[in-house]
Write a structure and sequence with these properties.
alpha/beta, six-stranded parallel β-sheet, three-stranded mixed β-sheet, 52% helix
Length: 417
């Protein structure tokens, strides 16, 4: 990147960092169980809600207890269960029409980041009916207060229940873009481990690694605060302590609850401090090939961290100590290597691997340009990179050196940022 581009990016990021104390960040109110929702809605005089989820979650009966609770309380519940991984503009518009037709007063995003992001985007379209999602992409273009929004994560990873971001895919172009504004932060987040009990081990792993990526990228960036550093470190500690337990025993409700807390903390951290090139590259892959976001992040994370070199050693050392994989007496280089080795060990233990299938070599230059457009100048990464420099990550994770047809993955997770 030339000096003028670098100066622009760093100046832009510096202005955002200086503005942090004056921006209306907030954390959602945490609820511990879906059983608290009927009384909340009665208190708010809400008699009709829309529940946004996906077919897999509803087919397996995960939403049934909540639907029954709302029915028993006399609260009408309209269900939209057609959300797909990497939710599209079509999803949002279909759900919005149903919301208006049934005169709903509140939104519940129930599922992984896909469902929660879809609910956020529906809320934005309800609040601003004359503007398209395309017109709201980027930063601070929503402005208006959304209908009451409740997020119920069924994965411990995306952090969408606490962020100001919704990531949407254009149904025609397959371009994936974020919408970032404070009204998108849910008012309530229900961290109920029972909703994650049936999550398959593979998704427990990739969504958990998604949360780890959020925490790591937020911590190593150049726009941290004391609060975001604290949240990120606590998230890393919890993930390294409880993700393996949740992966190997899905009925371990202590581990499930701790992982939900870790995802919440990591989401809070990156809401203020942003993410980095892992996410930018992962978003482009998700938009083009529908690769689940958590999986892409899990595979990309060590590649991107290694590419930053010794610039990130001081911060990786702190993360390694928080994770319990290094001692305070270790040098920065030694602790950093231990942290990277620990991430790779989790990839192997969780059968994630270090490659992604379906990437077509001819697509890489365009995908890298999309990633660079997303990341620069917004993401305060440790080392700035151009689109050409970002291409190496796509080639590094390609399953083979040759071109392959895209593999469509219909997993019940998006993820978001």
């Amino acid at each position: 990147m030339n000096p003028f581009q670098k100066a622009y990016c760093r100046t832009y990021q510096c202005v955002l960092r200086l503005a942090l104390p004056f921006l209306p960040y907030r954390k959602p109110t945490q609820l511990e169980s879906i059983r608290e929702l009927p009384s909340l809605f009665r208190q708010k005089k809400i008699t009709s809600v829309m529940l946004i989820t996906d077919k897999s979650i509803r087919f397996h009966g995960i939403t049934r207890p909540l639907e029954r609770l709302l029915s028993d309380a006399g609260i009408a519940c309209t269900v939209y269960d057609e959300t797909v991984a990497n939710p599209t503009t079509v999803n949002v518009e279909d759900a919005r029409e149903r919301y208006l037709a049934n005169r709903c007063q509140a939104l519940i995003g129930f599922g992984g980041g896909s469902s929660i992001d879809c609910a956020k985007a529906v809320g934005a379209r309800v609040a601003k009916p004359k503007q398209s999602l395309e017109q709201m992409k980027g930063i601070l273009r929503v402005h208006k207060r959304l209908p009451l929004l409740v997020a119920i994560p069924t994965t411990a990873g995306t952090g969408s229940e606490t962020t100001l971001a919704a990531v949407i895919t254009d149904a025609e172009s397959r371009h994936k873009y974020p919408i970032n504004d404070f009204p998108l932060i849910p008012r309530y987040a229900v961290l109920d481990p029972e909703t994650t009990r049936t999550l398959p081990a593979s998704l427990t792993a990739t969504t958990g690694m998604d949360a780890l990526t959020h925490a790591v990228e937020a911590y190593i960036g150049r726009s941290t605060t004391a609060e975001t550093r604290r949240d990120a470190l606590q998230a890393v500690y919890l993930i390294f302590r409880y993700l393996r337990r949740a992966y190997h025993n899905g009925d371990d409700m202590v581990a499930r609850r701790k992982m939900l807390q870790a995802a919440y903390l990591a989401g809070s951290a990156f809401s203020k401090s942003y993410v980095g090139y892992v996410h930018a590259v992962a978003h482009s892959l998700g938009g083009k090939y529908n690769i689940p976001h958590g999986l892409a992040n899990a595979v990309l994370l060590p590649y991107v961290l290694e590419s930053y070199g010794d610039v990130v050693y001081p911060k990786l050392r702190v993360l390694a100590v928080a994770a319990g994989v290094a001692d305070r007496s270790d040098s920065e280089a030694e602790a950093s290597r231990k942290f990277l080795d620990a991430v790779k060990a989790m990839q192997e233990e969780f059968h994630i691997g270090n490659k992604l299938s379906g990437i077509v070599r001819e697509d890489v230059p365009r995908l890298a340009k999309l990633a660079a457009k997303e990341g620069n100048p917004l993401y305060p990464v440790p080392v700035l990179m151009t689109a050409k420099e970002l291409e190496k990550f796509y080639y590094a994770v390609m399953e083979t050196a040759g071109s392959r047809p895209p593999r469509r993955v219909n997993a019940p997770e998006r993820g978001s940022l």
